[in-house]
Amino acid sequence: MDTGAVADCATAFEACFGAPPEATSSAPGRVNLLGEHTDYNDGHVLPIAIDQRTTVSMRRHGEPGFKVHARSLNRSASFTLDAPAEDPFARYVQGSLVVAASTGMQIPTMSIFVASNVPMGVGLSSSAALEVATLRALRELIGATWNDVLIAQLAQRAEIEHAGVRCGIMDQMASSLAGTREALWLDVRSRKRRLVPLPAGSAVLVLDSGTPRSLASSGYNTRRAECEAAARLLGVASLRDVDDPRAAVGLPEPLNRRVRHVVTENARVLRAVNTGDAADFGRLMNESHASLRDDYEVSVPALDRLVALLQAHPLVFGARLTGAGFGGACVALCQVQALADVAAEVLSRYEQEGFHGSQLVPAM
Ligand code: GLA
What CATH code is assigned to 3-195? Predict the structure, then answer.
């Protein structure tokens, strides 16, 4: 919990609504280190929380309806729990309250203030941070006994049922359970999980490719459907049940390559969790990028270029695109003292090639 951000949000709440909040809580964005497009295949993921957080303050107001203000968007909205909120950002808040009500808890009408410095629209899970922070503040306000896993599950339902995104559970679990120096290894099927420290001497660098994730939702849904079709052809409940990439050989294009990505990606997560070595970890990240580019086809030329520049840097252990892909961010594991230099050098070469990138997460 960032006490500075909590105090700041509480002060801003009072300035906005004229009385102090009764509950304030926050949750971080996340960057995924390994295990991409594996969560909806019941597989393994390894995300880590970032320093940027979303903070939510609440106060019961005893009047009909809910009011919410998002400072970073400079937008206010009103809604009830019975009809979808009109403003898309308010849908994440409203959806979180509606799924919370479905647990049987009474949700009082209230005023809500949202303050966030999680970058939006680049694949760092600003929406999961908003859902988890809303549910944490609500837990405090109404004295619910939800644990952090249940909060993540409710947050995922809010995203699927109210924001209309058919996501897996990685982002919400990462926001609810990961640390900023310890990644969350999660076996999505069994829900087995463990915090895994970053390899000694390494740090995480997150850069934006400057390319918007334009096809992210349609491409994401297509990949999910392809994985489901491949699982049906292989006669398994999900691709998690396939261990050997050779199982994909007889499948039609592109299902064979989609399966190969998922199977090899799950194996990479398990190897990364069991190595404390930054060089090994980095190699696995490089392999993951190649697999996402060639087999899963969710990269774009700008991301490939930025990742290649990172991978070629002598003080970088490995790099890959992160999140759903189709643009947005990439993640690198760097030598800890070199992070600022690597970012400056790589971004300047990227600019010379006509692209425009930026550093998304301060040194972690
Ligand atoms: C998005 C989804 C996650 C996950 C990733 C890809 O971030 O929200 O559930 O599927 O894409 O790994």
Answer: 3.30.230.10
CATH 3.30.70.890 fits 199-359, yes or no: yes
Please give the number of the atom of ligand 1 that sits closest to the Cα of 170.
9
In tens, the pLDDT along 234-253 reads: 999 999 999 999 999 999 99
Q: Would you tell me how many other CB atoms lie within 10 Å of the CB of residue 363?
A: 14
Q: Of 55, 58, 147, nearest to 97 (Cα)?
A: 58
What is the pLDDT at residue 84?
Answer: 85
pLDDT value at residue 216: 65
DSSP state of 257: H
Farthest-apart Cα atoms in the chain, separation: 66
Cα separation values, 31 from 47, 179, 259, 319, Å: 6, 11, 23, 12
Q: What is the pTM of this model?
A: 0.96
pLDDT tens digits, residue range 87-121?
A: 989 999 999 999 999 999 999 999 999 999 999 98
Ligand 1 centroid to Cα of residue 45, in Å, is 10
Residue to probe by mutation, ligand 1, list 31, 40, 299, most atoms within 8 Å of CB = 40
Terminal Cα-to-Cα distance of the chain (whole angstroms): 16
Residue identified by tokens 């559970």 is: 169
Closest C-alpha to 238, from 62, 61, 40:
40
> Residue ranges per domain, the chain?
3-195, 199-359
Helix axes 148-162, 170-177, angle to 10 degrees: 140
